[in-house]
Design a protein that fits this description.
The complex is a heterotrimer of chains A (284), B (373) and C (183). Chain A is an alpha/beta fold. Chain A is built from 10 helices and 10 strands. Chain A is globular, with a radius of gyration of 19 Å. Classes of the chains: A alpha/beta (284), B alpha/beta (373), C alpha/beta (183). The interface between A and B is large, with 42 and 42 residues.
Chain lengths: 284, 373, 183
């Protein structure tokens, strides 16, 4: 029993999370059952736990459903152009390395139209945390196939099944030398939160892929009509395997989802650190 | 840079002028004939505590400088036509979200890959209309290495004052030619900083304009909880996707420049008094016109030169001012010609070149002789 | 007065550097105005290289060579390509081992120097352009000797200065000798 006037831990946490949201902008645009809100919640809770000053934290999003996340966080936040969240964030971080810069965007934004920026920013090891919500589709535009849509999946632009091959995002990030690479689903609420918490304490180009449900335009075309069915799929078909091989990380149509922290190494100099050396040399 | 005389190319002068103006952040992607700007910035910015980064493409470059500008830095990128074509979407973002940035375009022969090393003036209209939608930018175009340096201070001042992208045009000739240049002492020029919020966080609406239609600009990391979006937004910065919000925002974005146009206009009027015919020319192409005007005057032709230094907003009142015939000499197949036609009362003749070389004094003189009375 | 100078030769002969040094000498050390341009399009034509300098006491309008007062050529192809640019009565300076003028040269005042051979004698053919600049300075007087040398000094890495000084003086002295002989 909780006595009147005294708030429970849950209530306090809820208030804290709400303080990081632009409550005056709610309700949000996301569909009932969408996984983006779950991911955003995990991010905000991790931020609170990590005791990171929200006034020194910047959230940058691109375009699309996930791209709207920047619009709801009560921090310095930027809703940029399609695909350009990463270079926009690079500009902020490079100009002010003391800021905590988070890119929160979707799979199409980060890996199709923004793919070039992703690979080059990872290669340079900018000190940025990328939370990549992968819902297998372009939700905002009505469910077309994207760079992460599994082969064989049905979307509005793959009416006979997807002939295309999806990105293996952790594989891609690791190959580019990203020091922290993890994948979770929206079912793995605590693991996701913990992973973001850890990543917030790491340096360099950190990538967390979050497999998320889009029941409205993806699930219903692919044998999962409700959010619950999609979550069921995530629960039943996901396996934690931190030392997964690249092949094991690959996602197949309604197949197994290998989750885990695939890479967590420290001490790789970031671009921003290396540039400090450049400044020192130039001023000698 | 120590005050004194230097022997620089237009590219070097653009880079040094930017640093002199206070630019401390540059992101860019190499492209002829602007690459020497990037090279100079890579060398010089870290010396003055600034930052230089070579990005993966022009789109990344402009996105990076827009982001960096929100931290309070004066920022620049440089490219040429193909790069501007790629940057245009984000030029629209900067216009829509009112971010001070300076973009140098060293114009070369175009369209497409065109004449990479040679002069062109085919991007004059693109500078104004490159991104989608109705918006205003400011565009400046010097004609010498010295003016490139000097005008860079104005470019940054305009960007900061009006919170607008400034497209700083040079051309393939100017970019690569070397001339003597005087660098004044640091304190010889006025540097304008963007307006800062006067209210504390929580009370300041991010896009609440003052009477001059320009909102003060907070920096990232100061607690203002900025939200900026390329979506149509209200004074809080929040998306408001209604015709009413669009009407209010787009009118203001345009009017904040249009209402200050006369402050922004810079025009050279050379021997235009009592002229019967005036040549309109810009950038390095205007230089031959001065010679031709002098020669024509010797022959009894009352000729003059009108050189818009501010290309956008177009200084139309200077065209209206003279009841003369105009010759528009530009290195394209008719761009500014159409603007001159819009405001001229007399005849307007186009003297085009498709690109690769300047008009010679002789060519201009030849055209002027047809106006001998 | 407007003076127009055109340099021509092959890539690697230091044609661009020669133009730059001359223009800077005039502008910075002789206190005049100058404009230096290089013809990038020439690079596409199989190693041809050319640069242009305009010098004046007043602000320079048109920045390129229209009718050259001086043409300095260090290759036969440059002679063939650019001779038409030289105005009648203008000064033609040639690398005499590499350029064989034809009968058209009679319209001009011609000075020749074996700049590459001299450079080799000094120790490196790479300073042939500096020999040529010394020669140009002596026979034309367009730029003062002091200004030209200061401009070379500014441009050349310190460890090569001695060799370049020898080259410059070799060309300069040879030029003076030629002038005396012809007067």
């Amino acid at each position: 029993m909780i006595s009147a006037g005294k708030k429970s831990t849950m209530e306090l946490l809820r208030e804290e999370v709400e303080s990081l949201l632009r409550i005056d902008r709610l309700p949000h645009v996301w569909c009932p059952g969408c996984g983006i809100g779950i991911t955003l919640n995990a991010f905000l809770r991790a931020l609170i736990r990590a005791k990171i000053d929200p006034n020194k934290t910047v959230v940058v999003s691109g375009i699309g459903c996930t791209g709207r996340a920047a619009g709801y966080v009560n921090m310095d936040s930027f809703h940029t152009t399609h695909g350009r969240a990463i270079p926009f964030a690079v500009g902020i971080k490079f100009a002010r390395p003391e800021l905590n810069v988070v890119v929160f965007s979707g799979d199409g934004d980060l890996f199709a139209i923004g793919g070039n920026h992703f690979v080059n920013a990872a290669r340079r090891n900018h000190d940025i945390l990328v939370i990549a919500v992968n819902n297998f589709t372009y939700g905002m535009t009505g469910g077309q196939h994207g760079p992460t849509t599994p082969t064989g999946a049905y979307t509005t632009t793959t009416p006979y099944g997807n002939p295309d091959r999806p990105f293996n995002i952790p594989h891609l990030a690791i190959s580019l030398g990203a020091p922290y690479v993890a994948r979770w689903t929206t079912y793995h609420l605590m693991q996701l939160q913990n992973s973001i918490y850890t990543a917030l304490h790491r340096k360099g180009f950190r990538v967390i892929e979050v497999i998320s449900q889009c029941p409205t335009v993806y699930g219903r075309r692919n044998e999962m009509k409700s959010p619950l069915e999609m979550m069921e799929y995530f629960r039943k078909f996901s396996v934690r395997k931190d030392d997964a091989t690249f092949d094991e990380m690959e996602l197949t149509y309604n197949g197994r989802i290998v989750v885990g922290v695939f890479r967590d190494v420290q001490g790789i100099p970031t671009y921003e650190e290396r540039y400090n050396d450049i400044i020192r040399r130039a001023q000698k | 840079m120590k005050p004194g005389y230097y022997f620089w190319s237009g590219d070097i002068a653009a880079a040094e002028g930017a640093i002199f103006a206070g630019c401390r952040f540059y992101a860019g992607y190499p492209i002829t004939p602007s690459s020497e700007i990037a090279e100079r910035m890579a060398l010089r910015l870290p010396q003055v505590g600034g930052k230089f980064i070579e990005m993966e493409d022009e789109i990344g470059s402009i996105a990076a400088i827009i982001g960096a500008s929100w931290t309070g830095e004066k920022v620049m990128t440089a490219t040429s036509g193909p790069g501007i074509s790629l940057m245009n979407e984000n030029i629209g973002l900067a216009a829509m979200t009112e971010v001070p940035i300076v973009i140098v375009n060293a114009m070369r022969g175009a369209p497409s890959t065109g004449l990479p090393t040679l002069v062109g003036q085919g991007d004059l209209m693109q500078a104004k209309w490159g991104s989608h939608g109705s918006y205003e930018i400011i565009s400046l175009y010097p004609d010498s290495v010295q003016e490139t340096f000097d005008l860079m201070v104005d470019a940054f001042n305009y960007a900061e004052k009006y919170r607008v992208p400034v497209l700083f045009l040079i051309d393939g000739m100017l970019a690569h030619m070397y001339e003597k240049i005087y660098v004044p002492p640091e304190d010889a020029v006025e540097r304008i900083e963007r307006k800062r919020p006067t209210k504390p966080p929580g009370e300041q609406l991010i896009y609440e304009p003052d009477e001059d239609l320009i909102p003060p600009m907070p920096r990232i990391g100061e607690g203002y909880k900025i939200h900026a979006s390329g979506l149509t937004h209200n004074e809080k910065g929040y998306p408001e996707l209604t015709p009413q919000a669009q009407e209010r925002l787009i009118r203001r974005l345009n009017d904040k420049i249009r209402k200050h146009a006369e402050e922004i206009w810079k025009v050279e009027e050379y021997r235009t008094d009592n002229a019967d015919v005036i040549v309109v020319a810009m950038g390095s192409n205007a230089r031959a016109v001065r010679t031709a005007v002098d020669e024509a005057r010797k022959e009894g032709i009352k000729a003059g030169l009108l050189r818009p230094i501010t290309i956008w907003p177009f200084p139309y009142k200077y065209i209206e001012k003279y009841a003369v015939d105009y010759i528009v000499a530009e290195i394209n197949y008719g761009q500014i010609y159409h603007k001159v036609k819009e405001y001229a009362s007399g005849n307007v003749e186009l003297l085009p070149k498709m690109g690769g070389e300047l008009h010679t004094p002789q060519e201009i003189l030849h055209a002027l002789r047809r106006y001998k009375k | 007065m407007r003076i127009e100078i055109k340099f021509g030769g092959l890539g690697g002969q230091g044609i661009i550097t020669a133009g730059y040094i001359t223009a800077k000498a005039a502008a910075i050390y002789d206190g005049k105005e100058s404009a230096f341009t290089q013809d990038y399009s020439a690079e596409a034509r199989g190693g041809a290289s050319t640069s242009e300098v305009v010098i004046s006491d007043e602000k320079i309008n048109y920045p390129q060579v229209l009718h050259a007062d001086y043409l300095i050529v260090m290759s036969q192809s440059a002679y063939n390509d650019y001779l038409y640019k030289l105005k009648k009565g203008g000064v033609l300076i040639i690398e005499e081992d590499l350029v064989k003028p034809d009968e058209r040269a009679k319209d001009f005042k011609v000075y020749g120097i074996p700049a590459t051979r001299f450079a080799e004698e000094i120790g490196n053919p790479i300073v042939a352009n500096i020999v040529m600049l010394g020669f140009f300075t002596a026979v034309t007087g367009v730029v003062s000797k002091e200004a030209m040398w200061k401009s070379i000094e500014e441009r050349i890495p310190k460890r090569f200065l001695e060799m370049n000084q020898k080259a410059f003086l070799k060309g300069y002295d040879y030029g003076q000798k030629i002038l005396q002989e012809s007067s």
